[in-house]
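Reviewer 2 asked us to include a model.

Predict the structure of this chain.
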Amino acid sequence: MKRAYADVSFGQLHYRELGEGEPILFLHKTPSSSVQFERCAPFLAHAGYRVLALDTPGFGLSDRHPTQPTMREYGLAVHQFLDALGIDKLHLFGHHTGATIALEAAGQNQARFLTLGFGGILAVETDEERDALKPYLGTYLWEPDSRGEFLERYPTKPLNDWLTEDDPEQYLIEATAYLEAGPLFWWSYEGVRNHRPYDILPALTMPTLFLNQELGRCHDQTVRAHAVTPGAKYVCLPGTSEGCMDDPAAFAGAVLAFLKA
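Predicted model (structure tokens):
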């Protein structure tokens, strides 16, 4: 995939691009980067789409917001990125944290998006749920040290907890992305935790896809979010939240089937 930068109000956003045709923008999970979509992008590009994958602010090679952002700022960054590329209308797909960012961006300007897709979404509904997520945020918090002792806590622990075994390339790709995110990676998690998705989901008007995974970390929340979204399509694939890396053909195939329908 070609790599480039776009200028936004707080710095530069890095992105990957492949193919020509109608654009579709992918937003990654936390703490990954646009590299998450390297394996599935060729399937979509071959089908005639211009595939864009963004390093969201503070991840990959993109600049971080100068202060801790809410989902509003992450959503606005998507629009600034599209403005910089001169893209008026496109398809938008977000994975986990990227799904929440995609939802917020759509809520800010629905007319811009031809379709909307969520690859698992942690749609938090109540204050009790938000409070219950606080301890989880502390599980992987880290600070660097001069001897690398932090590496066992991060990125080794989340990589071993989340990634599929026996895929060394994926492990190396994600380990690099996790470290690029730095110790403030949790900013986006906090943005998701405090977001109000159920203020937006029932009001969505564009064709919407909920692409779930049987063993996905956001499986139940994705089912619940789909239930309140008018006319949305629901697809559940085998496997874990790493589906776009583990089985990119199936993942891309589900997205393509939705787009072509």
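Residues 2-126+188-260 form a domain with the Rossmann fold fold (CATH 3.40.50.1820). The mean pLDDT is 97. We have added this to the supplementary material.
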